[in-house]
Amino acid sequence: QFSIEKECWDRVFLDRIEEACNPEREAEVACVVMSGGLCHVCLVTGSVTVTKARIETNIPKKRTGSSSHGKAIDKFYDA
Question: What does the alpha-carbon distance between residue 64 and residue 57 come to, in Å, rounded to a whole number?
Fold first, then answer.
């Protein structure tokens, strides 16, 4: 069992979580796979994995003296 926390939930996200937790949908596991700038929300059953959402954000390259990379990563994980 786990918890997901966010300051403000949109109705779209709440609907997706409700669908993922619905036992009638036969999903055994709901997973969120995140990597710098890319996120997949998936439902996993015994025989198939279904990607329900894909979220992409452009992350600038790391540059000396610039904090835009770190800010973009923080914004992505907060969204």
Answer: 21
How far is 17 from 12, CA to CA, in rounded Å? 9
Half-sphere exposure of 41 (CA within 13 A, CB side): 16
Task: Return all residues near 79 (Cβ < 8 A) that are at least 6 apart.
Answer: 55, 57
Assessment of whether the complete model's pTM goes beyond 0.70 = no
Q: What is d(CA 14, CA 1) in angstroms, rounded to the nearest whole number? A: 18
Q: C-alpha angle with apex 31: 28 to 37, nearest 5 degrees?
A: 165
pLDDT in tens, 7-66: 888 888 888 777 777 655 666 788 899 888 889 988 887 777 888 889 888 888 887 877
